[in-house]
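Q: Can I see a sequence and its folded structure?
A: Here is a first one.
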Amino acid sequence: MAYDQSMWTRRIKYGWLLWAAAGTTCTMTAYGFQPVFATACGCMWTLLWICFNLSTRMLICNFLNGCVDVFFRQVAVAGAHKLNFSDEPLLLAIAPHANQFIDPMIILKTFERPVGFLCAAKSMRYKRGPSDLIAFFANGIDSVPVERPQDIATVGKGIIRTVEKADNRVVVHGTGTSFMQACKRGDQFLVTKGPCKGAVAKILEVVSDSLAVVADNAFSGSDSNEESTYENVSDAPFKVLPKVDQDVVYQAIYSRLDSNGCVGIFPEGGSHDRASLLPLKAGIAVMALGACKQHGEALRKRLRVVAVGLNYFSGHRFRSRVFVDYGEPFEVSRELVDRYASGDKRGAGDELMAQILTAVKAVTVQAPDSATAETFWMLRRLYVPDGKRLTLEEKVALTRGFADAVEKDRNDPDVSSVLKKVEAYHGLLKHYSLHDRQVAKAGSDVLDSVDALAMLAFRLALLIAYAVAILPGTILASPLLVISEVVSRYKAKVAVAGSRVKLKGRDILATWKVVCGMVLIPALHTFYTICVYYLYSSKEAVAYFFFMPFVSYTSIIASENAYQVFRSIGPLFMLLTKRQTGVELREMRHILKRDVRELAQKLGWAEIIKKADSHNAGLDELRSPLHVSGFPRAD
């Protein structure tokens, strides 16, 4: 990526503003002005320098990167290096959309080229509330607003009384309705309550205020029953989802791609907290094919589609981890563009969507539910030799390999047997509030009760020392912790109530924790600085204002260490009170490691794991037969 030489020229040209800032502060202090006031006056020159040299987007991106650094303990990335220094137009297919507005922040953090995201127009509108902060950031990074029908839906007057088939047409009968004024051809009915809640029907013709003709597949599948049909709809309240012309959005995307820009799209649509991907929407295929059709072969040869996998490790929690996997870029074939241009839009779009789905699955871990996903992670832990530390990239690659392998051999009786044993072991760990690594580390060096008691006493003392060190910071941060938790839980509850795909609303939690932090951290810091000023003096207030953030970040790191010490108390306590249980868990784990290794060797899972290791993360050593023979064989 070429450097903007004009930017460096501007910095040299306006460097005198920084000199003026330092001179103003020093001069006013020398003449007896309060240091705080003198510093504030000097900052005005600095702010002026920033306005001349830094764009709004650059400031926002750096601020958001700082938020990511604080909220996440680790952000690992693979595959971005081969894209950062190219000047080709890119369409990023990002999935799963599991962390609402945090997801684009992660992309901005891990990708060096400017990315314009497709964003719900609802999120980019200012509403004179806390969500205006999100709107400011979304507009500041040049997002493309997309109007969604559900965001501008209107509540229907009256109810849908019955739906029946007459003269080979599906007809909706309303009571107290005004279909002629409320809807038109192309709009959709959405049932909002009752057993068919969530079912939709496309309107083909509005006959009268109480009669409308809908598509044959009307009201197929609801939130609670995928098998429901229009025959199940009765006395149902409804909304009208208007047909939205997205031509303006498509033209904006075409223009960005033709200018060698990068566009980020979440093809699942809205965010969700499911373990598996939602069905991908065809909009990304239409954008790729439409851009190639409009701008010709010159753009098609340059355009690349890239799948980006966001793999979170409890991403809704503070100080969690995330691994971002950028897949191999691929071009849109000339054959598909020709088919699309000749009128076969659905066929060409479906084929391109199949390619995109395959690419997305290659950079994500797929599981039908969260319990199965946890089983895949446990298989990975048991497969890896004790003492071998994996990077996040290696962990995701290996887990993805097990997910693919289990899917291939799910009907094998040996696979079913091992999966049941792994699930039972995982259940026991949850019951005793233990982690697999704690069982793995409970070796022969902690077999003596006296040693275990001494180690327990030492770690309790260490935990108390940590608690004393971080207690002041915890008290100062308590308003933030309480308010962010309450607000995020409330927002998640509201989101679940208004969504067809969210389970517990965990995809909302991190976003609102960060938003609350953006507002409350500066407010609390300013308030505490004022308190220090009035309780002590201006000197202490200045020191607090500038250096307390470093102390706070150190407290966060210390609290992480304290948590690790706290987690180690459980296994030690078990060695003292339930010694036999600890021995049984270690033995169960030892047998499971042997079984998982032998099953992988027997069914040839090594090759599947190799395919999942798309970036050569270093799993060759784990696939070596030497490691298999390192475990006890079955008799």
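Q: Show me another, different protein.
A: A second, unrelated one:
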Amino acid sequence: MSAATTLNEPFNNLEKLPHSPCVTLYHRNGRVGCGTLEREVMTGRLLHWSAVVSNGANESNAQSSLPPYVAVLDEADYTTQTIEMLQTFSSNFVAGDEYGPVTDGGGPLRGVLVLSTDPSNVDGVTFPSPEPLTPQGDGTPMENLSVGSSYEWNVNNNGDGLTFTDMSGVPTVYVADSQTAAYLRNVASEQANSISSDLNAAVFPSVLSEFNYYMGPSETTDGTKVTSQQCLEWKDLDGSWSPKCLPLGGNSIWAVAGTPVPLGYTDDENANDNNQDRPTVILSASIDSTSMFHELSPGANAAASNILSLLLAAELLGSSIKDEVLDQLYSRITFAFFQGESHGFIGSRLFVKDVIGGFECQAGNEGIPSVLKRKDEASTVRACLNPLRTDLTFQNLGDIRGMIAVDQVGNLGGGKNLYVQGGTENGFDAFLSEVILELSANGEYTAQASSASNNNEDGTASLPPSPVSSLVKLSESSAGGVVLTGYDDAFVANSLYHSHLDSVSMRQSIDKDAIAASATLLARSAVAAAYQNENNEVDAATAAAYALDLLPNAVSSSSTTFENIYNCLFSDGNCDAFVKYASVESANDAIRTGLNLGIGQPLGKPPNFYVSVYNHENGQGFVAASGFKYGAMDSSAEDKEDYVKDYGDNENDVFLLRPSLLEMSLNGMLNDFLGRGSLLDSNDGTAPDLVDCSSSNDCSSVSYCSSSDSSELAAISTCAGGKCICGSRAHYHPAVDEAISPAANEAPGWFTIDENDQGVSAMITEPFWSSFVGVRAYNDAGKGVGIYASISGALFTSICIFVVYRLKKGLVKEKVY
């Protein structure tokens, strides 16, 4: 396709215009995002958006109707201000019927095409973040979940809140291909020039774009706003329950360093204490991102840098410190990778709520075997039918003493300074901050205390969006933590926060050495934090020295492990390394359950860190009992159907889970990295050569696990990433909004609002898509051409009939017919 093509040349119809859509999301109080007004398509001619705005400024152009148009704009111009200008002008008119009947009653603005910027014309161009100045804070559905919700973390990125704008009636897509974008840009500009100051001029011929993107209504027939609750509980006219959306969600992954956490139920009175009664220090990261175009959520700095840093910290810890040394620390070290954090801290809130809030299983906290036929095996985890949890091991973690989160450490704005957010008060939070500062004092990359102001009513410091916010809020500030970041009092300028351009193949620049330095600092800080005793009698310098003694080596950005994982997270999400780890996890699960569900949603190339909808194909755990599948199960319910049998009636009853490729890979890598600690020699730190494997069946005869002096669980060999390691340390935990629960005795994908809902969560859902959605562009010569052609055809046919008639008469006369 030639980028120089103009209206003077034939237009190459794009029946299926390559694009990524802006979609609708419902939340607790309404909706945000894009979509057509009704199920009918919305069609208009392509016009550069500036032509519409300039015409709109001239009041003499005001008319009762205008020919429908589609505004074409560059991605740098895709802002709240631009959309508001377009909507305001359009609201003064009704759409004409030049391109077909308009039944929705909307204005002439029929859609928006956002084009990738011309690569040769980016000097001086700024690309704003679509998030508001207060990300997940004031004015968003998540404002009750943040610590310091009014703080403007996104001020350096011109955050304007487009993410949370309701653009119902303005279907919008992004065209990434540079040649296609240039082609459409030229067409829109030429058509805009042809109309000059009159938007009614030159209606035909025109190049049109047609949007088929119905994402559900904004209001019901009685004028009530449609919310996530209404969408989930939707009933058809006949009264039958027919949900129209799914919650966002997936799975978080957590794992412990040292001896695996006991799997059995340990205490009827306090199910959150394990048999060692050890508190835990959590190292955490968000593993998702978002953007205006969910299919393009590369999250290089917002997600991938966090994941890589925390994984490498786990690898450093597991390869350097023997389990028995970690077991002697006062606190246990737990790594947690939380899913769905970009949409209201979905993963961290449910995890923290379950751990510190006293999870209550309807049938008793002791749970039931997750695989009935393996109920007597030591490696079988416990599960709960309602609310459904496929793994109850989190009950044995102990109290959460504190948390260190990591955020956006891949882009330091060209500098070499990391920052510690929080920890300004006395107590364990302050100790965490002091330890990090102490450990970074002599490094090439140094950490400093953030200069973010303490503007909360209680005088505490505001925290950037991170899992630490969940701990502070749900513990009512009795527990907290700090965030290690790549920014000081605001996100780094041009960090492309939650932008579709946050990609190394687009506009993002990533500092690999900064990620490696962050990983080293996280690992050492975790050891120092766990070293602190019950009465907080160890000073930061002593704890830091202890950690440095155990972890003298640093993570290198040139190591094979770094490079392999970097490629997976930043370039090719379906890389061989991820597929290998996920394939082994899938094989292990198939052996354990007797069913092979395969690998879940791929990460993509380039990677896409959007959290996805939540159903049994995309991370929702479910139970298979007596031949039926349930999202949750309550066989004691009075209104249950006859086919709902008790769990255990069939020997093949089992809990099942199909995590995404990313989630399965993280689970496998944590088992691999942290499983090495039980194999290290106490004297020289060496480990035996590990046996190759493709599943846990290949590890049944390894000798180095059976000779381990660690716990029974550590002596059970398993396969992780193609190597036999000792003991499984990683676990999945559901990541779904705390107010949304799987419906009991219904198939997976059916949800209800929890009866104990406190009304604070965002409750984000995504409506079902039609299989026919899409956008096309084509040339329309107008009705007049068709009428002229029809008349000409009829006239020509009449002439032909007359000529044939006269010819026939002549032939008859000459007796040759």
